[in-house]
Design goal:
By secondary structure, the protein is mainly alpha-helical. Helix content is 74%, strand content 0%. It contains 21 helices and no strands. The longest helix is centred in the last third of the chain and has 34 residues. The radius of gyration is 23 Å and the shape is globular. The mean pLDDT is 84.
Length: 462
Amino acid sequence: MEWTAIVLFGLVVVVLMAGFPVALTLAGVSLLFASLMAILGQFGIGWFDMSYLEAIPSRVFGTMVNETLIAVPLFVFMGLVLEKARIAEDLLETLGHLFGRLRGGLAIAVVVVGTLLAASTGIVGATVVTMGLLALPTMLKRGYDPRAATGAICASGTLGQIIPPSIILVLLGDVLASAYQQAQLKQGIFAPDTVSVGDLFAGALIPGLLLVGFYMVYLVARAWLFPSTMPPMERAADDGHLGLRVLKALVAPLLLILAVLGSIIGGLATPTEAAGVGAFGALVIALAKRELTLARLREVMQGTVKLTAMVFLILLGASIFSLVFRGLGGDDLVHEWLSGLPGGVVGAMIAVMLLMFLLGFILDFIEITYVVVPITAPILLAMGLDPVWLGVMIAMNLQTSFLTPPFGFALFYLRGVAPPAVRTSDIYRGIVPFVAIQLGMLVVLALFPGLVTWLPELVYGR
C-alpha cells in the first residue's frame, strides 16, 4: 500500500495551493488521512498502524528542548532590530553615491547592500521591502530599465538565504543532523558522526560570496552591452566627504558580522550563542543610532514572536506528516525510487534537486525543508554524499523559491511597494537571469564540491 504515501503527499500539496495555513494543513491532512487509512484497513482497502502517532508527544518535546532551534528567534530578533535601526537606508544612500557614477553602479550598490544585510539580518522580506522603497524609485528616476532594477533588488534580497547567519541554514542544520544519524545507523555505524549548523555556516560562506560575484559580473556585463538600461548617476555636490560617510555606514554592520560569524567560524561560540551576541549587538547599534524606542521595541518583539511561532508550528506539523508518511511506507518507496534511477547517486541527486526546484514554484522554503528534506536526505546521505555539501546545495536550490513565480515571496514583497508604473511582468522577467545564475551556481558546486567543503575542513577538521 505504499502508493497511499504518494496520495498523501499530493493531497498536502493541493491543500497548500488552495491557501490553507501550512502548519494546520500538514498536521490536519496527515491525521485525517491516517485515520481514513486505518478505517479502510479493516476492509482490506487501506492500511495504517495508529501506533506511529504515539511518537508525536516525543517529537513535540524534542522540539521544545532543541537548543539549536533557539537561534531562530534570536536571529529573527536581530534582523528586525536592525531593520528598525535603518541600517539599510544609510548603506543604500552612501554606497549609491559611491558606485552610482559607474554605469550600472546603482545596481551594484544594491547587491553590496543586500550582501551586508544578508550577513547581518538574513530576513528576506524586510530586505526586499526596504530596498524596494528606498532604491527602486531612485533607480527608475535615473533611467534604469524596470526589469534590471527589480531583478537586482529581488535577487539581492534573497541572499539572506545562503549567506550565513541564515535561518534556513539553522533549520537545515537541525534536519540534516537527524538525517545524517539515520543514514549512518542504517549503514551499521553505531557511533555516528554529527553535522552542525556551524558546519553549514562555514560551508555556505564561500558559495554565497561567489554567488554575489556572479551577480555583479552579470550586472557589469549588462551595463556594458546595454548601456541605456543602466545609466550612471551625476556627481553629487556633497561627495567631498563620501569616503568618511561610507566608512561610518559600514562600521556597525561589519562589526556585527564579525562578532556573529567570526565567533562561530572561529570556534568561540555555537550558532545559538552567536545569535545571542548578534541580538545584543543589534540592540546596541539601534540605541547608538537613537532609533530604538519602546514602541519600536514592542513591534520587534511582536514580529519575532509571530515569525518564530510560524516556524515552530510548521515544524510540528511537518513532524506529524513525516510520521504518517513513514507509517504508510513512503520512506521505503522513495528509497526504491531513488536507488533505481539511472546514474546511481548522481541520478538520485539530480532528481531530488529538480523536485525541490519545481516545488519551489508552489511551496515555501520552510515547507520544503521540513517535508521533502527529511524524506530524501537520509537516502542521499546513505549513498555517500557529504552532509555539508548536500545542505549547501539544498539551501542554494531553495533560494530560487523566493524568485520563481507564481508564489515567489520576494516578487510579492516588491510588487507591494513598487510604483504602479512597474508592471508585474517586468518583475517576473527581471528575475529570470538571476534564477539562471543560481542554477548555474548549483552546477559549479556540483563540479567543484571543494568550494563548500574546504572551509569546514580547515576550521573544524571535517
